């Protein structure tokens, strides 16, 4: 009996090594392809977008007298140069419509999105005369596609000049007049969308800010060093998030992290690393049941059962490349259970294969592994299952004289018909 137990332990240990190799290979496949795939998605779709407010300015002529020295004599000269006067906005009404549109490459899902941006910014001409204002809009990302880009002043659409990482338009404001600059475009990005008040990390001051973000999804998050919404409301399609400030002074920005879809590669890797736990419970329960019922299971039988368990993880690792992770999980579970049941049907009998072994595999392999789909509840689910298993086995074996059982060794039963 001792040699038999040691052989089963050796089979279990070798299978654990195989699972560690499989799990590591899955993570290496995911990591090696992740950076390359991310750049490919960015080149065709876009990167994270960081929108800055437009900058309005006008140019004035400044004349000053300077004193220079010519031929040993001091000479006064008048110089004229251009001075750029930046005018801050008095108020801003901004709306960003975000639509999630996931993209999958290999074992990785990318949180890509579409955005419709529109903002009304109020500026006042402080000069006592009519001035031509240059309105510069920093583009949220160089790697992006923009459609319907429009800048208007008091309802009049302005011609656009594209250069570098910004768009420039020119409009005229009368003396001391207030104008409304409207910005609108459609674009797409990846992972994060943010609205930044300043170009650097300095503290910014914003007057009369009203920003509304509409989403058609839940599960988003707010990154560190970002402002939480002052108001949020769930809608039939998603969420409406509002940031309303009368006189904001802050070094933080407004940012939203897109919800992350369940990643097939890392999930398959975690399930593979966890695989020794289900196999241990399965071997333990099968060993107890076979001992109690006098069923002779040779270590080679345990070897083939371990191979059937390993087949689940191997098939899951490579099938999730081609179908959804849920479909891959269901197919792999069905294949592994079929291998175990059809094999034990020949080794023992149909009832033991379906009821005892099949049910145990369904609980420990399938349900324990499926707990990884519910992040945050995996450990609790496994703990509850382990405690229930311990309780059932203790009740089943409480009156067993183990010394006699191990002394006699397993009997060789007559196998029932199919």
Describe, in plain words, how this protein is organized in 3D:
- The protein is built from 8 helices and 18 strands.
- Helix 1 runs antiparallel to helix 2, helix 1 packs antiparallel against helix 3 and helix 4 runs antiparallel to helix 5.
- The longest helix is centred in the first third of the chain and has 43 residues.
- An 8-stranded mixed β-sheet has the order 10-9-13-7-4-15-17-16, with no helix packed on it.
- The chain is α+β, with helices and mostly antiparallel strands and 418 residues long.
- The protein is 39% helix and 33% strand.
Helical segment tally?
Answer: 8
Poorly predicted spans: 411-418
Kindly, what is the distance between the CA atoms of the first and last residues, rounded to a whole number of angstroms? Answer: 29 Å
Number of strands: 18
Q: Into which percent range does the helicity of residues fall?
A: 25-40%
Describe the sheet with the most strands: 8 strands, mixed
- Output mean pLDDT: 86
Radius of gyration: 34 Å
* Class derived from helix and strand content: alpha+beta
Give the strand content.
25-35%
H/E element order: HEEEEEEEEEEEEEEEEEEHHHHHHH
**Strand order in the largest sheet:** 10-9-13-7-4-15-17-16
Outline type: elongated
């Amino acid at each position: 009996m001792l040699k038999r137990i040691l052989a089963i332990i050796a089979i279990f240990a070798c299978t654990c090594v195989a699972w560690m190799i499989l799990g590591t290979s899955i993570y290496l496949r995911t990591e090696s392809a992740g950076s390359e795939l991310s750049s490919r998605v960015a080149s065709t779709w876009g990167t994270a977008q960081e929108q800055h407010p437009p900058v309005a300015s006008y140019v004035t002529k400044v004349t000053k007298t300077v004193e220079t020295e010519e031929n040993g004599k001091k000479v006064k000269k008048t110089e004229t140069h251009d001075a750029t006067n930046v005018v801050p906005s008095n108020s801003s009404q901004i709306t960003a419509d975000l639509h999630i549109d996931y993209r999958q490459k290999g074992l990785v899902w990318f949180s890509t999105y579409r955005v419709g941006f529109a903002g009304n910014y109020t500026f006042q001409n402080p000069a006592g005369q009519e001035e031509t204002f240059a309105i510069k809009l920093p583009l949220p990302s160089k790697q992006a596609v923009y459609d319907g880009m429009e800048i208007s002043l008091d309802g009049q659409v302005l011609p656009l000049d594209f250069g570098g990482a910004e768009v420039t338009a020119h409009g005229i404001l009368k003396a001391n007049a207030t104008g409304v600059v409207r910005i609108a475009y459609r674009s797409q990005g990846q992972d994060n969308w943010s609205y930044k008040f300043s170009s650097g990390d300095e503290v910014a001051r914003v007057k009369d800010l009203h920003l509304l973000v509409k989403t058609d999804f839940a599960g988003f998050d707010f990154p560190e060093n970002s402002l939480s919404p002052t108001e949020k409301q769930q809608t039939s399609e998603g969420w409406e998030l509002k940031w309303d400030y009368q006189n904001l002074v802050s070094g933080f920005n407004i940012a939203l992290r897109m919800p992350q879809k369940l990643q097939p590669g890392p999930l398959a890797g975690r399930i593979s690393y966890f695989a020794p736990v289900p196999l241990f419970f399965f071997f333990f329960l099968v060993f107890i049941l076979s001992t109690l019922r006098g069923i002779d299971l040779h270590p080679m039988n345990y070897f083939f059962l371990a191979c059937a368990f390993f087949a689940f993880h191997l098939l899951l690792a490579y099938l999730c490349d081609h179908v959804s992770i849920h479909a891959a999980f269901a197919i792999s579970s069905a294949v592994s259970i079929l291998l175990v049941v059809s094999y034990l049907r020949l080794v023992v009998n149909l009832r033991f294969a379906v009821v005892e072994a099949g049910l145990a595999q369904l609980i420990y392999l399938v349900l324990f592994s499926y707990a990884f789909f519910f992040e945050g509840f995996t450990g609790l689910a496994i703990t509850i299952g382990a405690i229930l298993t311990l309780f059932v086995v203790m009740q089943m074996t409480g009156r067993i004289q183990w010394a006699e059982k191990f002394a006699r060794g397993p009997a060789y039963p007559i196998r029932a018909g199919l």
